[in-house]
Specification:
- This protein is mainly α.
- It has a domain of about 100 residues: Ankyrin repeat-containing domain (Serine Threonine Protein Phosphatase 5, Tetratricopeptide repeat, Alpha Horseshoe), CATH 1.25.40.20.
- It has 26 helices and no strands.
- The termini are far apart.
């Protein structure tokens, strides 16, 4: 009979039947009976938000701090997770341990913070919940709230959390995390609480660089308004502008430029933002950088923005850079012009742009090869026709004594051979 009453008690609690609960408690049902997971009637009541049932169970002597076998959860944790505010208040008033931890090291405060239950968080804080407890992942309730972007929780904890600039093992601050994840309101709350915009992580990164790298222009603007150094460089020499350019975030680039970002700063590899934008193919960013005074003739490892764009086949960028004064016949350290680089990669659109702007088709690289030789040696008949039409000399020899025709024959491209012969190539 007792066993039956215990089962009925669990069922009555889950069904929210307070009259049956009280009747069963008066009929010798065990108040702390549990199911196979160790879930007691009080835990069910807490999770389901049944305040009066929870009160009846506590009045009948239910143990308030029991932990469920599964995950080690307490009634308070279950109530906090479910946003059962009245149950939380009841449990607190009856002396529950607000800092009890489950098997992951989490407290009720962490659970509420992660879920974004600000009202619950405030009750727990008022009851003495500790904000510096860390779970097995080394996260505090504050860090969990920041990462989840729960601004109201962040603000509530900040009132009890004196150091907003605490850094984790990687040197990351809450502001850096919120900036990276795009939580604008959380960023604003952290800034209002005195978050330091100049702090760096172990890689030399700042909250601004985090926002720029993740493409959050509004957050970047907020941080800059608080006095962040727009030109600060990390350990790789990257500025926020470098990071935004690489990822192609044009709106972030515009924000940074409007706040004085230096377009000429080089990272430790020697790249300016323009070199990176040309390589990556971000035409809108190239235009913004050039408009801000970026040097279209800047060189790194023998490459200029024009040659990098030509290598990658970025036709629109080639057009832009030429319009802003790049030398169409500039040669890299290997002697190759943008035209040669485009020809050896079959970028016909780039070739047409270069030819239209007066590219010299017969310039040779350090091995004496012309653009025509490169195209012929790789079987690019369409490119061969474009170059022939532009005046390419079919009988020039490279340093090894080979002509374009000989290279096409050697590599087995009969259609190119025919095109060259028709253009007057000598056998």
């Amino acid at each position: 009979m007792t066993k039956s009453n215990d089962v009925l008690l669990l069922s009555a609690v889950k069904n929210g039947d307070i009259k049956q609960v009280q009747a069963l408690l008066n009929s010798s049902a065990k108040v702390d009976t549990s199911d196979r997971d160790g879930t007691t009637p009080l835990m069910f009541a807490a999770h389901l938000g049944y305040t009066e049932i929870a009160r009846s169970l506590l009045d009948a002597g239910a143990q308030i701090n029991l932990k469920r076998k599964r995950y080690g959860l307490t009634a308070l944790m279950l109530a906090a997770s479910a946003k059962a505010l009245d149950v939380v208040k009841l449990l607190v008033s009856r002396g529950t341990d607000v800092n009890a931890t489950n098997e992951d090291g989490s407290t009720a405060l962490m659970v509420a913070a992660l879920k974004g239950h600000a009202d619950v968080v405030q009750v727990l804080l008022a009851a003495g919940a500790k904000v510096d407890v860390k779970d097995k992942d080394e996260d505090t309730a504050f860090q969990l709230a920041v990462r989840a972007g729960h601004t109201a929780v962040v603000q509530a904890i900040l009132q009890n959390y004196t150091d907003v600039n605490t850094q984790d093992e990687e040197g990351e601050t809450a502001l850096m995390v919120a900036a990276d994840l795009g939580h604008l309101e959380a960023v604003q709350a952290l800034l209002a609480a005195g978050a330091d915009v100049q702090m760096r992580n172990l890689d030399g990164g700042t909250a601004l660089s985090a926002a720029a790298a993740a493409g959050h222009s509004a957050i970047a603007a907020e941080i800059l308004d608080r006095g962040a150094d727009v030109n600060i460089q990390d350990k790789d020499g990257e500025t926020a502008l470098h990071l935004a350019v690489v990822e192609g975030y044009a709106d972030v680039v515009e924000v940074l430029l409007s706040q004085g970002a230096n377009v000429q700063i080089k990272n430790h590899l020697g790249d300016t933002p323009l070199l990176l934008a040309a390589l990556q193919g971000h035409s809108q960013i190239v235009e913004a950088l050039v408009r801000q005074g970026a040097n279209v003739k800047e060189k790194n490892l023998g490459e200029q923005p024009l040659t990098l764009a030509a290598i990658q086949g970025h036709t629109e960028i080639v057009k832009l850079i030429l319009y802003h004064g790049a030398d169409v016949n500039t040669q890299g350290d290997d002697g190759k012009t943008a035209l040669i680089k485009a020809a050896e990669r079959h970028h016909t659109g780039v070739i047409q742009q270069l030819v239209a702007k007066g590219a010299e088709v017969n310039l040779r690289d350090s091995a004496g090869a012309t653009a025509l030789m490169w195209a012929a040696s790789r079987g690019y008949n369409e490119v061969v026709h474009l170059l022939l039409k532009a005046g390419a000399d079919v009988n020039i020899k490279n340093q090894g004594g080979y002509t374009a025709l000989m290279l096409a024959e050697f590599n087995g491209y009969p259609s190119v051979v025919q095109s060259l012969l028709a253009a007057g190539a000598q056998e």
